[in-house]
């Protein structure tokens, strides 16, 4: 399941966050090649962020996916998410950073004991 976690210092009050979430979901799904049903987007606003020594609009993101990431895909994702942030939140492309994590699938088990 790809998960895109976005943080910005932009105040999201009055912003149509649903359109950002929807556009980011479809963008991540189409570029990575995973179904939208498996994509999670987390958007946090009003996060204290300083970029380049000032607090003008900026954003930081982390994208975690089990497979589907490579340098070409990462470049496309970075550009597409930057365009969404610039259009929807007025965050310049030069004030945005996206970190990628391509993880391996793991099976986690948890034991439950009854008393």
TrEMBL record:
Any Pfam family the entry gives: MIF
Species annotation: Vigna mungo
Family per record: Belongs to the MIF family.
GO cellular component: extracellular space
UniProt cross-references to InterPro entries, sorted A to Z: Macrophage_inhib_fac, Tautomerase/MIF_sf
Gene Ontology molecular function: phenylpyruvate tautomerase activity
Protein name: Macrophage migration inhibitory factor homolog
